[in-house]
């Protein structure tokens, strides 16, 4: 058989070969279809996931994505107290009218418009729960919140009982929440420091900070003298608070002697009632404390005071950077205009009888809160015993009482279980009880500033009140200042007070008396030339 015929494939072999090729083509087409179906399914699944993801994001429920988001500071951002869309900002005309109505002066930078409603603030609903009982911000809050929230240093001069604690407390807590999230709930080193002149004021500020930060889990710790230091240190180490409220002496003791607090991370400093702290001789301690804090632009400083003397101005010039000054009313003395000031000139023998007569009028129900101020510890104790003998449910606080007794007395007065409180000036500041209807100054205080703060214990939280003062001939050196205070508040000046004269005596220094001379630290020296 020829070779050419031997190599030629048969018809059967060609058919088999053709069948194999078709089979391979069909398999390839099936694989291609299967792959395309898989790709289409994959794309569909991916689109579904993306749609679900967008839906979760719009609903605010994608917690996993939020946890993975990092802040610029490197702190993991948690779901925070999100504020509702802020209300429209007010106009310049509205701001000017508001400032004129409340006698507000803003200097240093007047570009910040006040918040007239809580809805205009950047604070979230959780933080604003602490303000639920108020219909709108107080004037000092309205003017200070936008400035403090912009991380500017602020000097606030306002009457007592004007809501200054929340004026600096809410922006401080808002800053902690926004910047640190859940890490602000437990801090190795405090981030906010509030310095107060008295134990009572420190405790009260601490309680208000706790109330404001509760919903956000941000805690506060209070350090003050008169209580066991070791107990405070243990609580400090256990709670690791972001906020510390302290009196100067105890804070220095805990920092320098026990090394229980490191102040090197404090970003927000508040000097509350700065004039009182300087009057009590705390200037050296305050300067030492501020020296332990971060300096310059890394720290925001806020200073509040009821008066604006030269000593406070010097402190502000030293430690505040380009501050915005917010002043409500006069810089010298600011008494709430809702306080009806009544001054009665009496002789010493008449005081007990007049006090009992006033209580029959002011404390007729024996349930409303009345605060009686005495000058000395023994005097307060004597008044307490006299009123108890007359059947009054009362209690006294003064320097001879233990800190525990004083706290119990203030709490009983606040709750109303003991509605009549007798106190020395230890309670003139820091006693924040909104429902005190009457203040009776049984003995005139040593300074006109203390008179201001005594009167500030009534007419708080937008309410009205009465401050009835006994003025004796021995107090005549205060007549000029007192008459000026009464006139500035449009109060009636009795003729019996005018007879003591309107001369204002020069304020004496606590250490140097009448020989003290105010010196302007910014004044340039005068060059003397000898001929």
UniProtKB/TrEMBL annotation:
Main localisation: nucleus
Bias (Basic residues) ranges: 32-43
UniProt function note: ATP-dependent RNA helicase required for 60S ribosomal subunit synthesis. Involved in efficient pre-rRNA processing, predominantly at site A3, which is necessary for the normal formation of 25S and 5.8S rRNAs.
Location of the region described as Disordered in the Swiss-Prot/TrEMBL record: 1-73
Entries under PROSITE patterns matching the protein: DEAD_ATP_HELICASE, HELICASE_ATP_BIND_1, HELICASE_CTER, Q_MOTIF
DEAD-box RNA helicase Q domain boundaries: 116-142
Protein's UniProt name: RNA helicase
Domain Helicase ATP-binding intervals: 145-326
Species in which this protein is naturally found: Coemansia guatemalensis
PANTHER family, sorted: ATP-DEPENDENT RNA HELICASE DBP3
Superkingdom classification of source: Eukaryota
Listed GO MF terms: ATP binding; hydrolase activity; nucleic acid binding; RNA helicase activity
Any single Pfam family the record assigns to this protein: Helicase_C
Family: Belongs to the DEAD box helicase family. DDX5/DBP2 subfamily.
EC number, UniProt record: 3.6.4.13
Cell compartments where the protein resides: Nucleus, Nucleolus
Annotated ranges, domain Helicase C-terminal: 338-501
Record's compositionally biased regions (Basic and acidic residues): 8-31, 44-65
InterPro entries: DEAD/DEAH_box_helicase_dom (IPR011545), DEAD/DEAH_RhlB (IPR044742), Helicase_ATP-bd (IPR014001), Helicase_C-like (IPR001650), P-loop_NTPase (IPR027417), RNA-helicase_DEAD-box_CS (IPR000629), RNA_helicase_DEAD_Q_motif (IPR014014)
Entry keyword set: ATP-binding, Helicase, Hydrolase, Nucleotide-binding, Nucleus, Ribosome biogenesis, rRNA processing
Record motif Q motif, residues: 116-142
Segments forming a coiled coil: none
